[in-house]
Amino acid sequence: MSLGNLASVGYFLPELTVTATILLLILMHVVTKSPRSNAFGFLSLVGVGAAILLSGIVPAGAGKSIFEGMAAYDGFAVFFKVLTALATLVVIFMTMDSREMDGRSQAEYYIFLLSTLLGMFLLSSATDIVMLYLSLELVSIPSYLLAGYFKGRERSTEAAMKYVVFGATASGVMIYGFSFLFGLTGTTQIAEIGRSLAAGKATLPMLLASVMVAVGFGYKIAAVPFHMWSPDVYEGAPTPATAFFSVGPKAAGFAVLVRFYYTVFAAPDPGSALWRLTSAVDWPLLFAALSAVTMTVGNLVAVKQDNVKRLLAYSSIAHAGYMLMGFVLLSPAGLKAILFYLVVYLFMNLGAFYVVILVSNATNGGEDISDFAGLGSRAPFAAVSLAVFLFALTGIPPFSGFIGKVYLFAEVINRGVYWLVVVAGLNSVVALYYYARIVRSMFLDEPTDTAAIAVPGVPRAMLLLMVAPTLILGVYWEPVARIASDSIRMIAF
Amino acid sequence: MVEPSAYLLLSAILFCIGVVGVVMRRNVLIILMSVELMLNGVNVAFVAAGSYLGDVAGGIFAFMVMTVAAAEAAVGLALLIALYRLKETIDVTELRILKW
Question: Considering the domain boundaries, does residue A231 fall inside one?
Fold first, then answer.
């Protein structure tokens, strides 16, 4: 069934491209005398761009299990590979535009960034708990280093230290859960684990295992109560890295969450095209509760924030809560809603961070809401773009975020989980308040410094490339929705 | 012949001591050591399960965990040194520039 190592190489080209780029970056760093040059950024752009092209689109139903069952090559994995690589591509542009990185060595930064990308590729396709653990750590360890990249800056180092402690503890709890699953079933393949758990009736160890694994994945997607690291890390890390954390590892976390729980603790129900639980452990209820708590805490705490990076951190926690709603429904439409939401979230969130970087460049590292005062007259284009992104994040029509929410809410109602919809609806109202606060400051408050902020060509073009999908997907979303529903097919062996 | 459940009990005890250490101690160095203790508890569980089932995958997983733990410790200790140079303390209660 599963392909051997040599035969698998042909299905592993994006990963090999990224690996080759990392090695080239290291080589270049060793031989070149100017680690600060932008050449590292351009090389990374080429590598990531090639990886996106090579990911291609898998014909529907033509999934393969590669490397002796270690990883899957299917539509679901390809979707997440393209998504995370796109996020990385935008983040590389951001890094080259950010003044924060001026005068610092660039080489290591891109090496860590691309290593994380490689980890995300593997995480979204892992089908074996050994592989899953290793790829999760390949995402985490370079992320610690990215967060602490400004080692002379107290905030950055402190954030990275907290990240290491939280991350290591969460992944430790997760593999303790894995050790239960291995002990119960005697295999490391997630599909086999699923089958043998469905046959047995070991409820208590399964409950423990499902909760412990939820800790590890919950930390990766920053779900409450495993979110404590994320506001600190988002505020302390270099802004482009923050933008990266808020989209890339979160998306990969959702990929592994869906693949793992839908394979190990659930099975496709032949009768109804839905999934059904294979045990007495009601983990969807657990995650529904997590989802409600996550969005509520994220939104309520975001209201009090004055630092925009920290505000966006809490807002991204809230968005993870919204997306978790689609995860608990055990239906293809719920998964499709998650994938669609991730696409629109990629553009609106990275776009918002892009403007934060432009403002911080112009105000010597200013990141408070007061630094955005009068942005409407100082840099009209950036201000209008940020307004579009923030309204899209709120979920107001006619922006793309609204369509994303419609898909999620509609499926939750369809499956009859009304209480969750009520919580999510109330949360959207709270979200409007804090996003509108930034918009108000940009257009109504008097700036302390009225000098115009110049937005150079590249950031202008990038902002346009982020605004366009945010607007277009609000009125014409059919193609992306189709890609999302084609990509939910996961293979299970 | 020791019962397999004895090994699992040992691993649970090690793991719990590690968790308590992470939660209770204030010194970052001790916290990192406690995390290692958690991972060693996991390793005992994997090796015990692997040898009971006659499956080498358990032992292999334990090796992977050790490797990753070493990488994690390298990064954690490097950051710890950077932090100490900046703040001259490694007490977690002093890590509070960033909060709510």
Answer: yes
Q: Is residue B100's pLDDT more than 50?
A: no
Task: Count up the domains in chain A and report the number.
Answer: 2
pLDDT in tens, B3-53: 878 999 999 999 999 999 998 888 889 999 999 999 999 999 999 999 998
Looking at the fold, whether A250 and A288 belong to one and the same domain comes out as no
The CA-based angle A473-A475-A476, given to 5 degrees, is 65
Q: Please tell me whether residues A330 and A426 are part of one structural domain.
A: yes
Q: Do both A234 and A335 map to the same domain? A: no
Q: Is the Cβ pair A172, B8 closer than 8 Å?
A: no
Domain membership of residue A61 (yes or no) is: yes
Q: Which architecture does CATH list for B4-94? A: Orthogonal Bundle (1.10)
* Identity of the residue in A154, A175, A188 whose CB atom sits nearest the CB atom of B42: A175
Categorize the per-residue pLDDT at B98 as very low, low, confident or very high, splitting at 50, 70 and 90: low
Quickly tell me which residue has 């733990």 as its tokens: B69
Q: Give pLDDT tens digits for A71-95.
A: 988 888 999 999 999 999 999 999 9
Helices (H) and strands (E) in chain B, counts: 3, 0
**Residues A402 and A470 both lie in one domain:** yes
Interface-testing mutation among B60, B72, B96, with chain A (most A C-beta atoms within 10 A): B72
Q: Is B97 close to A154, i.e. CB distance below 8 A?
A: yes
* Statement to judge: residues A303 and A399 lie in one domain: yes
DSSP code per residue over A134-159: HHHHHHHHHHHHHHT--TTSHHHHHH
Judge whether A419 lies within some domain.
yes
User: What is the average per-residue pLDDT within A131-158?
Assistant: 91
Confirm whether the ipTM is greater than 0.90: yes
Asked if residue A141 has pLDDT above 60, the reply is yes
Domain presence at residue A390: yes
A405, A280: one domain: yes
The domain limits of chain B are 4-94
- Nearest CA to A160 out of A145, A140, A172, A171 is that of A145
Q: pLDDT tens for residues A6-39?
A: 888 888 889 999 999 999 999 998 888 776 778 8
What radius of gyration, in Å, describes the C-alpha atoms of chain B? 17
Domain that holds residue A408: 275-493
- Least CA distance to A148: which residue of chain B? B79
Return d(Cα A224, Cα A166) in angstroms, integer: 13
